[in-house]
Amino acid sequence: MNYATIILANGAFPESAAALEMLRHAEHLICCDGAIDKLTAHGLTPTVLVGDCDSMRPEDLERWHDILAPDRSEEYNDLQKALKYCSAHHLDHIALLGCEGLRDDHFIANISIMATYSEHLDLVMITDHGTFNVIRKSTTLPAIPGQQVSVFTKNENLPLTFHGLKYPVHKRCFKHLWEGSLNEATENAFTIELHGEGVVIVYRAH
């Protein structure tokens, strides 16, 4: 995937070859301050370092002072601060890495944050196990036959139709988050059709 801007959050550092390649070739590499040691341990240097900087060592504050973008607001976590930075600097085509691992509650929160900020930014979240996309209109996504797919929405009154998945759905509203999970692609692409306004999160396993 070709994303010029990468945000590295302070979860488990990505291990997949595809994610590491994205980090190496990012045009804009936005690093949450808690992840800086992990990033530099892999020989990589961020474009910008975002966060409250409270936990950074004095020597690191000196080392990175030219690229620090401190944000000391307490109502946002570091991923939100990085997304706010991107929005302010007109970076709107963004891949999120390092959002999983270490704390499951942070991972759930990060998925919710991605859904919220996707209203104004083009976001994708990539883990070592799969890819999350947020869609707000009928969308076709590439797939491999047999690829595992899950669809989530909290909009109980949003009818959805699935095309190209093993378990078809026709204008169905989901009352629970799990109802659209554990499906499977049957073709080289599938379509999630939205019959109304709402937010849908689509997961494709690698």
Keywords summarizing the entry:
ten-stranded mixed β-sheet, alpha/beta, 14 strands, 206 residues, single chain, four-stranded antiparallel β-sheet
How would you describe this protein?
It is a single chain. This protein is α/β, with parallel strands linked by helices and 206 residues long. It is built from five helices and 14 strands. The longest helix has 14 residues.
How are the secondary structure elements laid out?
Layout: E1 5-8, H1 17-25, E2 28-32, H2 36-41, E3 48-51, H3 58-63, E4 68-70, H4 78-88, E5 93-97, H5 104-117, E6 122-126, E7 130-135, E8 139-142, E9 148-152, E10 160-163, E11 169-172, E12 183-184, E13 189-194, E14 200-205
Parallel strand pairs: 1-2, 1-5, 2-3, 3-4, 5-6
Antiparallel strand pairs: 6-7, 7-14, 8-13, 9-12, 9-14, 10-11, 10-13
Q: How would you describe the oligomerization state of the chains in this entry?
A: single chain
Structural class: alpha/beta
Radius of gyration: 18 Å
Instruction: State the helicity in percent bands.
Output: 10-25%
**Overall mean pLDDT score?**
93
Would you list the SSEs in sequence order as H and E? Answer: EHEHEHEHEHEEEEEEEEE
Model regions low in confidence, pLDDT < 50 over at least 5 residues: none
> Distance N terminus to C terminus?
13 Å
Order of neighbouring strands in the sheet with most strands: 4-3-2-1-5-6-7-14-9-12
Main sheet: strands, sense, barrel: 10 strands, mixed
Number of strands: 14
